[in-house]
């Protein structure tokens, strides 16, 4: 990533899976993310509450997973379930997971760990 300002701009604009693809590309995932069908989602053991799932490959065993969560989904509940499913069903790969959900906003806390809060949709 070229600059902190560029990174902040990419994160601010990340309101769709197409925009998340820009972040993945900046992180070195050169292949365009592909949509996963229900069979692939089931094979990975991903939980319900996902509106759309896209995958891309990086160097070696590195994979990027872009998620669009259903509007009513609890981000704090779903992301650990996604991580557990990937660890159980595709542990041979190294995963970077990024997710969006309308109405959710993530920011760093003073303790250094990310926090999630609700925000009003700009749409």
What is the element layout, followed by pairings?
Layout (H helix, E strand, L loop, with lengths): L3 H9 L4 H10 L7 E2 L2 H7 L5 E8 L4 E8 L5 H15 L4 E7 L3 E5 L5 E5 L5
Parallel strand pairs: 3-4
Antiparallel strand pairs: 1-2, 2-3, 5-6
Explain this structure to me?
With 123 residues, the chain is α+β, with helices and mostly antiparallel strands. The protein contains four helices and six strands; from the N terminus they run H-H-E-H-E-E-H-E-E-E. The strands form two sheets. Strands 1-2-3-4 form a four-stranded mixed β-sheet, with helices on both faces. Strands 5-6 form a two-stranded antiparallel sheet. Strand 3 (62-69), helix 4 (75-89) and strand 4 form a beta-alpha-beta unit. The longest helix is centred in the middle third of the chain and has 15 residues, at 75-89. Mean pLDDT is 85; it is low at 118-123.
Sheet bearing the most strands, described? 4 strands, mixed
Helix content: 25-40%
By CATH, the architecture is named: 2-Layer Sandwich
Name the poorly predicted regions. Answer: 118-123
| Oligomeric state of the chains present here | single chain
Number of domains: 1
CATH class label = Alpha Beta
By DSSP, the count of extended strands is: 6
What is the mean predicted local confidence, pLDDT? 85
Helix count from the secondary structure assignment: 4
Order the strands across the largest sheet as they lie in space. Answer: 1-2-3-4
């Amino acid at each position: 990533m070229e600059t902190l300002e560029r990174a902040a701009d990419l994160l601010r604009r990340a309101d769709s899976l197409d925009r998340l693809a820009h972040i993945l590309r900046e992180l070195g995932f050169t292949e365009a993310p592909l949509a996963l069908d229900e069979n692939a989602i089931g094979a990975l053991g991903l939980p319900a509450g996902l509106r759309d799932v896209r995958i891309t490959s990086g160097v070696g065993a590195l994979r990027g997973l872009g998620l669009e969560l259903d509007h009513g989904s609890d981000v704090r509940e779903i992301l650990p379930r996604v991580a557990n499913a990937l660890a159980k069903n595709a542990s041979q790969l190294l995963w970077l997971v990024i997710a969006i959900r309308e109405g959710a906003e993530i920011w760093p806390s003073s303790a250094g760990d990310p926090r999630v809060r609700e925000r009003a949709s700009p749409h």
